[in-house]
Structure formats: C-alpha cells, structure tokens
Amino acid sequence: MKVFLGKKEQSGTILLVTLWVLVVLTALTLSVGRSTALELALTKHTVAKAKSKYLAWAGIVYALDQIREDSHDSLSGRRDTLYYCAIPMNEEHTPVELFKERVVGDGYFEISSRADGFAGQEEGGVYYGLQDEERRINVNALTSSNAFVLNSLLILRGSDPQTAQIITFSLLDWKDADNLLSQEGSGAEDDYYMGLSNPYHCKNRPLDSKEELLLVRGMDPEAFQKIEDDITIFPKSGNLRINFDTASEAVLQALAYAFKGSLTNTDTADADALATKILDYRRGEDGREFTVDDRPIEMGKMALNAKENVLFLAMNQFRTEKSDYIYVHSEGVEYRRGAKTEMSAVIYRPDLTVHYWHRD
C-alpha cells in the first residue's frame, strides 16, 4: 500500500534534509578553513625562515667585504687585536656599530660571538665583531716538540696530569702518518682503537673538526667542552702560531705553564704573573677588553722582571701578530615573525675562501 505525504510533511522533510546539508557544508567549510589557515601559517613561517637564512648569509658576505678591506689597509692589515680583528682601523665606526643589527629589507643580521674568557662589550658577555682562529691553540700544528702546550691547557681546565698526557700523546698518534707510539704507555695507535668494544681505525691524518677529538684516547665530553673554545684545527698544516693580542687568559697561561720549570728557572707563580701582565697591558688605560685603547703586546713596555722576560722569550717563538683564519658567526632575523637563522664560517684571509661552514 502506498503512503502519500501531504504538502506539510514533504516540506518538513525537505527542510530537515536542507538543514543536514547545511550542517555538513558548514563542518566542511570550517575544516577546510582551519586547514587553509594552518597551511597559510606554515607557509608564512617557511617564507620568514627563508628570509632569515638569506639575512644570515648577507652577514657572511658583509664580513667577507670587511676582511677584504682590512687586508688592503697598509696599517691595520699587519696585525689583529680584539677591537680591530680583521676590520680596518676606522675611528668613525666602532665594532658594535659595524656588526650589531644591520638592517636589510624587512630584517637584519648581526655578527657576534660569546666572549668566552672576556667581559664582552655589553652585558651578557656578547662580543660584536669577527674572531681570529689564531687566538686558539691549533691541535693540527702540535708535534712532539710543542705538544706540552695542549698538555698544560688540559691541566688548567681540570684534567688530571696523567689523563692530560694520555690525550696529548694519543692526539699526536691520531694525526701522524705512522703506526708508532709517540709515547709508550700514553699514546694510542690502531691496535688500541681496534680493540675497543666499538672498534674503529686510527685516522693518521689531520683533524677535520674539533669534535673529532672525542675519538681520541682519553678524551671525554666533559674535558672536550672545557677546552673547545681554546682550540682550533686551522690551518691543517704548518707551525703552531698564537696571536698574543687576541688569545684568552687560559691560552696565555697554557703557553706560560708549558715553559715554566728548570729550563727557564721559573715556577707557576712566574707564569701566572706573566699572563696577568700581558692581559693588563693589553686592556689599555681603561682596563677593559674590546675598547679602542686596547694595546698590542710589546715586551719592553710591560715592566717584566727577569724571570718573566725569560718566559716571554720562550713563548714568543709561537707568536704571530697577523691572523689568516677568521671566524664569523652571523645571525639573520626576520622582523615580522621573528624567524632566526645562524650561520658560522671560517674564512681564509689571503684568498677569502671559506674553509668551514655550518648553518643551524
């Protein structure tokens, strides 16, 4: 039997169906809207992040230009200090003015680093400017005749003498070409590393990164973290050279400690006193690092006593005044969304080639 709906019942059914269709369409619209809004937000963030990347890269290019200009300057190109590191000696602009928040389009870049071992130019120990790698101890330049410098640094930074000796001589074995122990009982060649629970070969070549030290016998993350800012791998060949005008207190102390003893008739107190006098003289009249009156080290002007003179002359064989490897840390910031990108590079001054590159 057929049942016929009246007009009222038909209208009610149509209305009900229409309402359900509206509900479904509304839900779909809201879902699509939320999805679109999320995709739009992600797109905006991606664009902002890309902008920050190119802003950071602009900082690297800007640093290259500063290094080039400094290299062509007959006066400032001859030496590097904390204040004038790889930049022209220009009294019109301070390093803070040159490197802090340089606006480019809708963002900015700035070139800065942690001022480890120094007060920095501003609160928080921030240093605006470039850094030379020659302020650090080059582990690739260590040999049996100068490795005691690293040994001294490790002890200064908290390693016990035996561990420091194991790390030092094992490093020499790690990067030399032979399979002979540099020091019996303290070094490590292939047979040691292949006998570990997770074996690997001794490299027998220069280090390609500082972190590679963690593979060397005796080194652990804690000891590495303590010396990380005091060492470099640049250049990968050549003699040990340290810039006394930019080196940290720990590096200067390590050098002085390496030469104290019977050969120089000096002790720890003499080494500490020499490092202090170097730093005090270097700071200039205002007693602060990173200021325009920072002075280059001159032996005859530091009022050294006889023992300190002997120590300084011994250290001086490793001294350089001009730095060839320049470290740049650039941060790009996009204004609207606050996206940030950090880039680091080590630039070889003579031909402006990039020898190290990292982006977060």
Number of strands: 11
Main beta sheet strand tally, sense and closure = 7 strands, antiparallel
Poorly predicted regions are none
Query: What is the H/E string?
Result: HHEEEEEHHHHEEHHHEEEE
Mean pLDDT, as a whole number?
A: 90
Report how far the terminal alpha carbons are from each other. Answer: 77 Å
Count, helices:
9
Cα gyration radius (Å): 30 Å
Shape: globular
Structure summary:
The protein is built from 9 helices and 11 strands.
Description:
The structure is a single chain. The chain has helices at 7-71, 95-99, 148-156, 161-175, 190-194, 221-227, 249-259, 268-283, 306-315, and strands at 102-104, 107-114, 126-128, 131-132, 137-138, 231-232, 242-243, 319-320, 325-334, 340-348, 353-359. By secondary structure, it is of the alpha+beta class. The chain has a domain at 57-133 and 323-359. Strands 1, 2, 3, 4, 9, 10 and 11 form a 7-stranded antiparallel beta sheet that branches. A hairpin with a 2-residue loop joins strand 1 (102-104) and strand 2 (107-114). Helix 3 packs across helix 4 (161-175) and helix 3 packs across helix 7.
How do the helices and strands line up, and which of them pair or pack?
Elements lengths: L6 H65 L23 H5 L2 E3 L2 E8 L11 E3 L2 E2 L4 E2 L9 H9 L4 H15 L14 H5 L26 H7 L3 E2 L9 E2 L5 H11 L8 H16 L22 H10 L3 E2 L4 E10 L5 E9 L4 E7 L1
Parallel strand pairs: 5-6, 7-8
Antiparallel strand pairs: 1-2, 2-3, 2-9, 4-9, 9-10, 10-11
Helix pairs in contact: 3-4, 3-7, 7-8, 8-9
